[in-house]
What we know:
The protein has helices at residues 15-28, 48-55, 66-79, 91-110, 125-136, 156-165, 241-254, 279-295, 298-317, 323-334, 366-369, 382-401; strands spanning 6-10, 31-38, 59-64, 114-117, 141-144, 179-182, 187-190, 220-227, 230-234, 237-238, 259-265, 271-277, 341-348, 351-358. The chain is α/β, with parallel strands linked by helices. The chain has three domains: 6-66 and 92-177, Rossmann fold (3-Layer(aba) Sandwich), CATH 3.40.50.620; 182-358, Alpha-Beta Complex (Argininosuccinate synthetase, chain A, domain 2); 366-401. The strands form three sheets. A five-stranded parallel sheet has the order 3-2-1-4-5, with helices on both faces. Strands 10-9-8-13-14 form a five-stranded antiparallel sheet. Helix 5 (125-136) links the parallel strand 4 and strand 5 (141-144). The radius of gyration is 25 Å and the shape is elongated.
Amino acid sequence: MKEVKKVVLAYSGGLDTSVILKWLIETYGCEVICFAADIGQKEELSGLREKAIQTGAAKIYIDDLREEFARNFVFPALRANAIYEGTYLLGTSLARPLIARRQLEIAKTEGADAVCHGATGKGNDQVRFELTYMALNPAIRIISAWRDERWTFDSRASMIDYAEKHGIPLPLTREKPYSSDRNLLHISHEGGILEDTWAEPKEEMFVLTVSPEAAPDRPAYVEIGFEKGNPVSVNGAAMTPAALVDHLNGIAGANGIGRMDMVENRFVGMKSRGVYETPGGTILWAAHRAVESITMDREVMLMRDSLIPKYAQLVYNGFWYSPEMEVLQRFIDDTQGRVTGTARLKLYKGNCIVVGRKSPFSLYSEDFATFEKDRVYDQKDATGFIRLNALRLRILAMMDARG
């Protein structure tokens, strides 16, 4: 294969990419340019530039992609009510295609021969990164360190040994070897002590949320405004997409909302346990559904809901940049034309309760729905409606009775 002279590494400063940075220089003898996407990691980005340069990087890009992440990745998934296996709000899955796309742009600017990621050969992220690379630049060379024949590490412990040998500072210890991945939408925790599916996560692990037991004894109320399926305001104050998600993270996290512990089915075929904190996302999904409940036609909602598992699967498996995803997103967005209004939520000790919803496009009519006397609905009309819908059931029962 051609010699690699320059590679762009998707760099987080965690154990894997810190070791890979040094390993690339030693193994390939190439120039390494690091790229860190600021998608809401906050304090995790502190000192990242200095650390990358000290470890051997020729240059590092740290690009603020928070607004783009929220507007063009989180919000489209919210419009779809996308949730994987009934639980996971896809925080990591949504971030990877954005990171990989920007990584390719930097590779083009820098004239790099290759791109590299730190995902393991067992996980989903390797697929998400590489499907994006291949969809957007099929000619680029991909270095997957964990699958490289010259990769000699067989465990996190061996990587920690290597890092200590080379004086590379790490965000984890041997005593707490689980890894975390944070962005604007969530933070994920996996590995280490969490590999025992019977073990309860320790309270010290959580970052964005307090425990429900430690949450305030009085409920908090929040009103979220939507326009065409997108959240645009909190308690009447207009906000940009990233600012809105960040603001709701603070409100929801303080009330113990957004923790989730699941064993999920990875795309590569194995089951894996993940513990997630998605405080703002949890209340956004509930609020969006509440506004939809009064603005979406029944059959349109039924059709859209039937596609939620497929949408979530495509995102989870890394097919963000695919023809089927493009078509599906257009359909989803078409369903959101009337989803404008406000949802009021009551937050209390880990519970997110919808207590109100209103919209100028509401399809709800008190005149039709009332249990009191009305002049617009003749209840006797339901007799024929029920008999017609029961016809096939009556025929089946009569045939069974005849043997």
